C-alpha cells in the first residue's frame, strides 16, 4: 500500500514537471532558416557595431547591392552617442536597408539570470529604436530580431521571450569566421558553402577580417543565383517575401 502511494506521488511530481516544462517551452520560439523553395539566404553579422569593420562590410554589401542583418551588443551600440564613427556606420545600416538586431547588452551567459537578460534586451531594443528614429524610421520592439550571445538556448527563455515581446530567437549556421587566423579565408567560405541550403541563415561576425572572405563568398552565392534577405519590414529583402520563418 505504502509503495503504491510513493509511486503515485512520483507519478504526479513527474506530471507537474512535464506540464511546467511544456508551458515554458511553448513560448520559446526559435528560428533557424526561411522555409522557402527559392534560392535565398540571410547574411548576419554579430558583435558590432564597430566603426572600422562595419564600414568595410557595408562598403562590400553596397557594392553587391545586398541587405544584411547586424546583431549588436549594447556595450558597442551605446557608442552611437559618443563616437562619430559608430554613429556613421549605424546610420548607414539603417539608410542602406540593413536590419539592426539585438545581441544583448553585455554578451554574457544568462542561464541563471533571466531577469537581467530581460532588462538588457529591453535596454538594447530602446537604443535600436532610437537609432532608427534618428534616421526617421519607426520600429517596434516586436520587429527587432534578437540573437542570443553564444547561441545560448534553454528552457527559461520562453519567459524572457514573453517579457520582451519578442516573437522568435534567431539562430542559423555558425562556422568559425571569428577565429580568422586559424580558419583562414578559404576554410571560412568552405564552411558556409558546405552548409548552403535554400533559406539558410549564415552567422558571421563584425570583424576587420570579413573583408578578406566576404566578396568571394557573395560572388559564389550570386553565381549560383542566390538572393539575400533580412528582417527589414516593408522592404524587398524582407523574409516574408520568400516564405515563412522556421526551424
Ligand atoms: Zn556574439
Automatic annotation (TrEMBL):
Location of the NodB homology domain: 39-229
One Gene Ontology biological process: carbohydrate metabolic process
Organism expressing this protein natively: Mesoplasma florum (strain ATCC 33453 / NBRC 100688 / NCTC 11704 / L1)
A Pfam family the protein falls into: Polysacc_deac_1
InterPro entries: Glyco_hydro/deAcase_b/a-brl, NODB_dom, Polysacc_deacetylase_ArnD
One GO MF term attached to the UniProt entry: hydrolase activity, acting on carbon-nitrogen (but not peptide) bonds
Listed name of the protein: Chitin deacetylase
Amino acid at each position: 500500500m505504502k509503495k503504491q502511494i510513493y509511486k503515485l506521488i512520483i507519478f504526479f511530481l513527474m506530471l507537474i514537471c512535464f506540464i511546467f516544462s511544456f508551458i515554458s517551452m511553448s513560448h520559446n520560439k526559435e528560428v533557424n532558416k526561411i522555409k522557402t523553395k527559392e534560392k535565398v539566404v540571410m547574411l548576419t553579422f554579430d558583435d558590432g557595431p564597430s566603426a572600422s569593420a562595419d564600414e568595410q562590410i557595408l562598403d562590400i554589401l553596397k557594392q553587391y547591392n545586398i541587405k544584411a542583418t547586424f546583431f549588436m551588443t549594447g556595450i558597442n551600440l551605446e557608442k552611437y552617442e559618443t563616437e562619430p564613427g559608430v554613429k556613421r556606420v549605424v546610420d548607414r545600416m539603417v539608410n542602406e536597408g540593413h536590419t539592426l538586431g539585438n545581441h544583448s547588452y553585455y554578451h554574457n551567459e544568462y542561464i541563471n539570470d533571466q531577469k537581467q537578460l530581460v532588462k538588457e534586451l529591453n535596454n538594447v531594443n530602446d537604443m535600436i529604436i532610437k537609432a532608427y528614429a534618428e534616421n526617421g524610421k519607426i520600429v517596434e520592439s516586436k520587429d527587432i530580431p534578437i540573437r542570443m550571445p553564444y547561441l545560448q538556448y534553454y528552457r527559461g527563455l520562453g519567459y524572457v521571450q514573453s517579457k520582451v515581446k519578442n516573437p522568435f530567437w534567431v539562430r542559423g549556421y555558425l562556422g568559425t569566421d571569428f577565429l580568422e587566423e586559424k580558419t583562414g579565408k578559404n576554410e571560412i567560405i568552405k564552411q558556409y558553402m558546405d552548409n548552403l541550403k535554400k533559406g539558410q541563415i549564415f552567422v558571421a561576425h563584425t570583424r576587420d577580417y570579413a573583408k578578406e572572405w566576404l566578396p568571394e563568398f557573395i560572388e559564389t552565392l550570386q553565381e549560383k543565383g542566390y538572393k539575400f534577405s533580412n528582417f527589414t519590414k516593408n522592404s524587398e529583402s524582407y523574409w516574408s517575401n520568400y516564405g515563412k520563418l522556421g526551424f
